[in-house]
Amino acid sequence: MINNDECPTNAPPIGGSVRSGILPSTDTPMTKEGLNLQSSLVIGGALVGHSSLTHSFAACRRVTLSANSSFPHAFRLLPQRKRLAMDALYAFMRVTDDLADEPAELSQKQRKLAAWRAGLHSALAGEFTHPIHPALVDTVRRYAIPPQFLFDAIEGMETDLGPVRLATFAELSAYCYRVASTVGLACVRVWETRPGVTHAETDPLAEAAGIAFQFTNILRDLGEDLARDRVYLPADELARFDCPPESWRDPASVSAFRALMQFQIERARDYYRQSESLASKLSTEGRAIFRVMHGVYRRLLDEIERRGYDVFTRRVRIAKWRKVLVCASGWLAKWGLL
Prior knowledge:
The protein is mostly helical.
């Protein structure tokens, strides 16, 4: 589930863009060694034909630009090559998420995700079956991203194919790891760390940040997810607070629902606190983009609380001026002023 509040910024893009042609230059047919190979599209049934790494990154950029997400705005904090890598990671997650969320029969969505997983296996072996694959594999290899992160993300999206009921927080945290922490772990490889900092130090912090972000999304989207027959909050905790999903909108259950939400928000804040120190371990641009994402999601959690936990009458959003301030802090961090 990739579902993020927009983070606007008027700061100029760094470097060039897909349209300006500033991309890895390779227009030769794709091979395993050079990441160039003719391919045909499996998902969606269209034929891809001759492609190139340049065209693949352009395809990823189109996916990124078409999404209503904060990520593309935050990418501007990164240098050009890393921005392209983030486009590739985002496009992979976006396509995976869309396959899980599209209006189709369960069996059809299961087949498509299975084909998507098989396509990823093939892509990593040098046989590309989707336009984003060359860019994705180039990113995985260039930044030494463990491919298991990508497979775990697909597994996480499979949870969303049908009705969702989770028994315990252990199940919920595992889900959050697969659909969100894996993204953070991959992003940290792209953003890179300060000299001398290892992934053994950053990975636990990136995992905690992913759980915090996804948990915030879950609390914001309780109503929308319930309408899709998805209940992510653990059943044992719903029972403890005597607050089953069918009672969430019941005026007679306001006290129980508020107590449940207060408990969940405090736990989310604990994950934000756990992940805060990741910023100090990242490269300058990594620290900048992490500050923006961490700040936006944390303020979204604050807004849920400020609205008295009303996540049903209208979508919870952050005031635009608050988002601008958060994004400005990212640029100040990039320029070494924070």
